[in-house]
């Protein structure tokens, strides 16, 4: 399976490449009042406001520092995970040290058992080190989805 690899602190994480719509340089973001601390803000993407999540803050490490290789990974986020009706909106994921595309053996992925962080998915162990997948389906709680995607049919 092809994945987009990035760092959160010193650890390596990845998104399945099929989930990545676009990767853009880190840019200035507009703050969202009353949003959780790990919501970095809104990105102006060709006139469309796109909410951006700081993956470092979400994972419980200090907020992302912007580096020359920091990027906003844009994904098509499904608004209603429970119904799976297919409605999507762009969501940005602020990631430090985006490395690029790599391959992992999908059949060799292990379950991590991280109950406190349901967005952290299966783990790959190789000579390059451990790599943990981020599960978009578990990334946002329903109340945060409603906050970020008001008026877009997000479940309350």
Automatic annotation (TrEMBL):
Q: Where is the CheW-like domain?
A: 1-145
Q: Which PROSITE patterns match?
A: CHEW
Q: Highest taxon of the source?
A: Bacteria
Checking Pfam families in the record gives: CheW
In terms of InterPro entries, this protein maps to: CheW, CheW-like_dom_sf, CheW-lke_dom
Supply the name of the protein.
Chemotaxis protein CheW
Native species: Massilia mucilaginosa
Its lineage opens with: Bacteria, Pseudomonadati, Pseudomonadota, Betaproteobacteria, Burkholderiales
């Amino acid at each position: 399976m092809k994945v987009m690899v990035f760092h959160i602190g010193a650890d390596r994480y990845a998104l399945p490449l099929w989930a990545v719509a676009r990767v853009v340089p880190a840019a200035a973001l507009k703050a969202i009042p009353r949003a959780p601390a790990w919501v970095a803000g809104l990105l102006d993407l060709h006139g469309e406001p796109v909410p951006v999540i700081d993956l470092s803050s979400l994972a419980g490490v200090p907020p992302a520092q912007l580096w020359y290789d920091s990027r906003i990974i844009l994904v098509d986020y499904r608004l209603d995970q429970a119904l799976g009706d297919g409605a999507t909106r762009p969501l940005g994921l602020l990631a430090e040290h985006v490395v690029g595309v790599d391959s992992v053996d999908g059949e060799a992925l292990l379950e991590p058992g991280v109950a406190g962080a349901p967005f952290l998915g299966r783990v790959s162990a190789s000579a390059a080190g451990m790599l943990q997948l981020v599960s978009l389906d578990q990334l946002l709680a329903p109340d945060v989805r409603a906050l970020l995607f008001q008026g877009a049919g997000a479940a309350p």
